[in-house]
Design brief:
Largest sheet: none
Order of helices and strands: HHHHHH
Structural class: mainly alpha
Number of strands: 0
Mean pLDDT: 86
Length: 162
Amino acid sequence: MEKPTEPASIPDAERDTRKPPPEPSLMSTPPAPPRPTRDLTARAVAAVAAVVTAGAGLAVRAGADGAFAKYAGSALYTVLVCALVAFCAPRARPLVVAATALAVSWAVEFAQLTGVPAELSAHSTAARLVLGSTFNAPDLLWYAVGAAGAWAVLRAAARARG
């Protein structure tokens, strides 16, 4: 049997049954910007967050004393590390960023048991700010508090972006 090939021999050949593309509306969500633009924006936000967090940490240390200043500084230390991780890995999930920052913070704290950070801190203010000098077990908890707070902010920001 022969197949019809002429449009006239095919029923409804002239009628287009495909749906036209939907008209863009004012209520529709704009398309997401390309990845490089989103990465640059995420890095800019992370850089600003790092500067603000460092400033807040230094302000707490300068304006307060005692346990509050110490433990707020510990929590802010991990928030700062979160901002730096987010800057380096702008596509990382919030939980990965917070967990990495917590692991780094704990590693630095446990390194203080070796005495190396204390030796470096004796010769450098920057080393003292970054590495500390003496192990303090309660800091481990406050690093977790800082990581949890940073995770909550990162997660809310990721949900707001969609």
